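Figure 2 data, in text form.
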Amino acid sequence: ALCPEGNEANGAAIFTLMGKDYMLYPYGDFRSTLGFRFMLAESNDSQPTESQGKAKSPGDNSQFSILNSQFSNYHATWVFPQLGLGKVNSSTWDAPCCVTDGDQPNQKNLYIYVPGNGIAAYTLTAGIRGDVNGDGKVDIADVNAVINAMLGKGGLTPSPSPGGEGSPADINGDGKVDIADVNAVINIMLGK
């Protein structure tokens, strides 16, 4: 659900990454079960609007009219931190979010801050489905990378890591790397 669990936290950022629009906003507050958490939501629209394409500064309230008018055009992507950032009521109700460009064109840095609770930084990396080796294209090298992951070679893991992050070689998202993932990469290469 996109609707925040708590309503006593202010802040939002709207940005575009690799042609997709996103918004970042507080999802929980000090009264929520897990405390302050943030939602990253992706737009359902394929074409970004001019007003959506720029990250807004924490003090810029113009973003909220965009957020309110187009909220239904988004779907939930990620709620984080998983265990919350804290439950201290700082009485300011501020939970600023800031988004900056990352080191690569397919990256954005997400910064979240809650007074009295802490600050956290994340790097969001957009990828191409099937681009297992991260070179920006899907080709035979990606098929080889999936096979190497199946065999436990090449630095990719054949199963999800302890932190819950899946292997980039798990193309079909079933939690394991197997021949079905090899076939999935080949089908992507062939445009199927």
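Caption note: The first strand starts at residue 13 and ends at 17.
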